[in-house]
Specification:
Residues 37-243 form the Isochorismatase-like domain. The chain is α/β, with parallel strands linked by helices and 406 residues long. Helices cover 33% and strands 15% of the residues. It binds zinc ion (ZN). Zinc ion is lined by residues 88, 90, 96, 139-140, 165.
Amino acid sequence: MAEKNTLFDWNQDGLIDREEFAFCWNRWIKVIVRPKSALLVINVQNDFVSGTLNMSQRSAKQNGLQVIEPINKLLDTVNFNAVFYSLDWHPSNHISFIDNIKLRKIHYTSTVQPEDAQTYDTVVFDGDTPMKQKLWPRHCVQDSWGAELHKDLKIVDNAIKVYMGTDPEEDSYSVFWDSKKLKRTSLAKQLEAKKVTDVYVCGLAYDVCVGASAIDAITIGYRTILIEDCCRGMDLDDIERTRNTILENYGSCVQSDEVKSMVEGKDRRPELGLKLALELKAKCIGSLYVRVIESKDRRPELGLKLALELKAKSKSSSMIEDRWIKVIVRPNSALLVINVQNDFVSGTLNLSQRSAKQNGLQVIEPINKLLDTVNFNAVFYALDWHPMWYKGHYTSFGATWYDLTQ
Ligand SMILES: [Zn+2]
């Protein structure tokens, strides 16, 4: 794993110097040895166990009731730093209910018309942006029996409940976001506030809300672990796809009896260590490589910024002098070109349709001129690059840095 050896060599000099080691120790090794773990118990609600969306009636014929015993055992035996219970929690006029199909206009591109629509079909609703929606039976209506957590599920003290799909116009399979990625649920903020590093996910259904939540956790940057024997799903192929997506993105899929020693930092999975290292590298590329170009125009604010950075990082003043003047006179400059992608220029997130009415196309000429005339030490192009969920439905947000020089 040669990549791993260079992950903390930010300045690429082939050595891990003192600053780099301090960073590696504080942000990587400490997390691996003493992770902060949260358990997300996803949608163990009556409607999914034995109600209108009873998963035993779907193709995989799995029984949602069977997650309760292993989840309760986990809650009894493992000391998580936080436990969250999510609830699918829809108003009665919710967009995902097939019996509400006549309440909204269908977009002309929809291949399914309201009069022919069957449960589990996908239609396209009209709107500012046409929106794909899978049609489900009426389920988890707010304050109904179907929306209650199953009575046998253990609810721990200090449990935090997170509600999904509460807006009539928006559905959500992920406990982090609505499906259009416009509104965050309260979960992301609470995980941040509790300084959680590791997110464990279980519940119903593996290939829908559990999977979407796990993939979002990974994309946001958490070390993410799906507890397979504490999940049941709807379709075997979709379950397999979900599992593969998690594994390909440095998540873990484990059994519940492996969780305790992972939470205690005794069982340390290499894929989770690598995931954290990649996250740290992605976050630091920007701050560690910002320098001014040819060094003839030397901006005081940038000199001051550098001095403050060095002061914060080092106690030795001779080191500061050595690293400050030289950098100001001979900076190493990188250009980050952020997300100049079709969707933002003229596609689904076309800037010209937002309130500022600006035209994304107009950045291309000046950026090209920069690239032609300025000799940057490195050029990075960032691409917003989302993993695909099934059937063309995007679940994840966030930008990933792609270092084209490697
Ligand atoms: Zn729902």
